[in-house]
Design a protein that fits this description.
With 468 residues, this protein is mainly α. The chain contains 18 helices and 2 strands.
Length: 468
């Protein structure tokens, strides 16, 4: 077998199926809907509508959210078909290993791993900032040195560390327990969103939507079609959470039905909520008022004369941020488990405890996320999350063509099929590439460095183990 044949040697789906059989199948459609909505509708819905409107799109921020949803929706169709046909832990890593070979599967999985490491640190930092902001008026303040990353001159963000540890302990007790917590928090967060919408509509002024698409300002990313598309690149981060559902497909009951319903249903709910919040927010006050505003939803409610509602929404929003942390840590630990399961990383990562839980992967994810959060400030992490995910999205989108060919031989027919084949898979892949190209230079350089590191790890460890 030559070098190229070794790189493209495909994993057999029955191998993954047999290895994942030890995982407890406890998650149903409601669990996946809660997990998806909880991960997607996180911090972003209370911040991005205002900041993107002020920085890029004006009132047309609604169009930015819808355009981002179209790209995410196309990829979600591909994810639904893949998860339905191959309900394996590790999502894109396992699928691409079966369809294109172990090396390409590793690259897709390695890209997702960056998402999970960084996203956990990012979300925990957001939780910390909002908790501190919520309790500061009560005189409960955390010393600056204990709330500032090392690169910012502090000793690390201890509130963020506590948030990560809390969720890690919750997940270590069992997936079903975490799912119940997720369900309660998601319902609370959706209540807060509807409360904002109902009260916000009473302060809605149609003149604030004019002009709906502001004129493009030369030399900037504000206004016109280019402003709307610049908003898409910034917003796309909000929609990537449906990957966390697919990563847990090995623990799904009847995955042929539950996976498509969970992935597509949660995205549909999220799109409706994002669009509604965006429209009401820019209708309450002129979009310029939200420039550099870290809490536009609560601010708008206070300015409209509803301070109690503002405090209520802000408090529930902070609690609701834990749902995104649960989703990301659950998915990231399952990806690390899959790497260990297949010998791509140390085998102990692929072991489960006496409760059939892959807690070794959870431990590693927890430690690395804490280290990342201790060093890097909140703002430096945002676009890096999208970069890794978009690489995996591209693999999965184009992978539908290989899946359809293999479905006639050694793979089962998926319980859900991506519509308008073969057009939509191509559009999903091209859309993912386009959004990636719209990211900033830091995100692109960071993803290149991570890719090079991944290649080194593969040939130093995973490649040798696969061949041994």
């Amino acid at each position: 077998m030559n070098f190229w044949q070794q790189l493209t040697q495909k994993s057999h789906p029955d191998t993954f199926k047999a290895k994942d059989a030890k995982l407890d199948k406890v998650l149903g459609t409601k669990d996946f809907l809660a997990l998806g909505v909880g991960t997607i509708v996180g911090t972003a819905i209370f911040t991005l509508p205002g900041t993107v409107a002020a920085s890029h799109a004006g009132p047309a921020v609604v169009l930015s959210f819808l355009a981002a949803a179209v790209v995410a929706g196309l990829v979600a169709f591909a994810y639904a078909e893949m998860a339905s046909a191959m309900p394996f832990a590790g999502s894109a890593y396992s699928w691409i290993s079966v369809l294109f070979g172990n090396f390409f599967g590793w690259i897709a999985g390695w890209a997702l791993l960056a998402e999970y490491f960084i996203a956990v640190a990012f979300v925990s930092s957001g939780i910390s900032a909002n908790w501190r902001g919520l309790f500061a008026p009560l005189g409960l303040k955390v010393p600056t040195a204990l709330a500032t990353p090392l690169l910012g001159g502090g000793f690390g963000d201890f509130v963020a560390v506590l948030a990560i540890v809390f969720v890690a302990v919750l997940l270590a007790r069992g997936t079903k327990n975490a799912s119940r917590f997720e369900m309660v928090m998601v319902l609370a967060k959706v209540f807060a969103i509807f409360l904002f919408l109902v009260v916000g509509v009473t302060a809605f002024h149609i003149e604030n939507l004019h002009p709906f698409i502001p004129a493009h300002q030369t030399g900037t990313s504000f206004g016109g079609v280019s402003g709307i598309w610049a908003g898409v690149a910034g917003i796309f981060l909000a929609y990537i959470g449906f990957d966390s559902i697919a990563a847990n497909s090995a623990e799904a009951k009847n995955p042929a039905q539950t996976m498509p319903r969970g992935i597509l249903g949660s995205l549909l709910i999220a799109v409706a909520l994002f669009a509604a919040v965006s429209l009401v927010l820019v209708g309450m006050f002129k979009y310029t008022k939200y420039a550099n505003n870290a809490e536009p939803v609560a601010w708008a409610l206070r300015e409209a004369g509803h301070p109690i509602v503002a405090t209520t929404v802000a408090a529930i929003a902070v609690l609701g941020m834990f749902t995104a942390l649960v989703g990301m840590m659950l998915a990231g630990s399952r990806l690390l488990y899959a790497f260990g399961r297949d010998g791509m990383l140390p085998n102990w990562l692929g072991r489960v405890n006496d409760k059939d839980l892959p807690n070794n992967g959870l431990l590693v994810l927890t430690v690395i996320a804490i280290v990342i959060g201790a060093f890097f400030p909140f703002a430096a992490l945002a676009e890096l999350i999208s970069a890794g995910t978009l690489i995996a999205f591209t693999f999965v989108s184009f992978g539908i063509y290989a899946l359809r060919r293999r479905a006639k031989t050694d793979l089962p027919n998926a319980g859900f099929k991506m519509p308008l084949y073969p057009v939509l898979p191509a559009l999903a892949g091209i859309g993912s590439i386009s959004v990636f190209l719209g990211l900033g230079t830091t995100a692109k350089v960071g993803s290149l460095i991570w890719f090079v590191l991944g290649v080194i790890v593969y040939f130093a460890y995973g490649f040798q183990k696969k061949e041994s």
